[in-house]
Design brief:
By secondary structure, this protein is α/β, with parallel strands linked by helices. Helix content is about 35%, strand content about 20%.
């Protein structure tokens, strides 16, 4: 992978072993304003993310050495929060939800529209940059200057992108953090799915409000909110974060990388059916 990165163009790493897809995709992304490069294996992807720090990763599910979800899991386990958008020919809800559960930020099925793909990439990069830790002259922002949101036993540091529930740290992807931030900024008020799509995804999602339900479901799993004491569904209206204290202290952090989801897929605990509970 040659590397002549432009400081003025968002950098995208395409992880795809089919050159019939990767080469024209990299060319098209170049015309759309991205600095795009490609690798063909999961091992190369991990090395490229570590060494070159792309702004986003387009990750195929089927690779010669590692499954794409395993690549994503390893990135998240190492503390790397580079936005990951999965590209796959797999259309099932279980495949999509498993990819999101293991740390993915978005999922696009093949064949895809390049205009929509470009919009999704830019939205992920904007969201990631907006929530990245602030640094000044190479020094961390003073803790005293950080902005924190608190509701229902959850504490969210807007500047360092850290989250805690009942004092226990919770690792969130860029999209999960953005969603929880919107809900907590409006604690005690109902936020509609349309408002969430506009605030978090920032582009026309063509009415796919199911993505909100999926992310709320996984937020609840990670936050140990099995009884919806924190994030409450208001039928026909949207979601509401309880502003007051909550007493529920279930298993926290049971989202990305948990044994149940990692081994059984996104249907674990739901009978293998599409998620309907949010």
């Amino acid at each position: 992978m040659t590397r002549e990165r432009s400081p003025h163009r968002p950098s995208v790493l395409v992880v795809e072993d089919d050159t019939g897809i990767s080469e024209p995709l990299v060319t098209a992304l170049g015309f759309l304003g991205f600095d795009a490069h490609t690798v063909a294996t999961g091992a190369e992807a991990l090395a490229a993310v570590r060494d070159h720090r792309p702004d986003a990763v387009l990750l195929d599910l089927v690779l010669p050495d590692l499954d794409g979800t395993e690549v994503c899991r390893l990135l998240r386990a190492s503390g790397d929060n580079t936005p990951v958008l999965f590209l796959s020919a797999r259309h099932s809800v279980a495949d999509k939800c498993r990819a999101l559960a293991l740390g993915g930020d978005d999922y696009v099925t093949k064949p895809f529209d390049l205009t929509e793909l470009s919009a999704r990439i830019r939205a992920l990069i904007r969201r990631s940059r907006a929530t990245a830790p602030l640094r000044t002259l190479g020094h961390d922002t003073p803790a005293a200057a950080s902005r924190r949101l608190r509701a229902g036993g959850v504490e969210l540091d807007v500047d360092t992108r850290e989250a805690w529930r009942h004092g226990q740290p919770v690792r969130l992807s860029a999209t999960e953090f953005a969603l929880l931030k919107v809900l907590m900024e409006n604690a005690g008020r109902v936020v509609s799915k349309g408002s969430i799509l506009d605030s978090v995804w920032k582009y026309d999602f063509q009415g796919e409000s199911g993505v909100v339900e999926t992310y709320v479901y996984y937020l609840r799993r990670k936050l140990g909110d099995s009884g919806q004491s924190l994030i409450r569904t208001v039928r026909g209206a949207g979601y509401l974060v309880n502003a007051g204290p909550t007493t529920e202290r279930g298993s926290i952090g049971g989202g990305a990388g948990s044994t149940g989801i990692g081994s059984a897929g996104a249907g674990a605990g739901t009978g293998g059916q599409p998620i309907q509970r949010s």
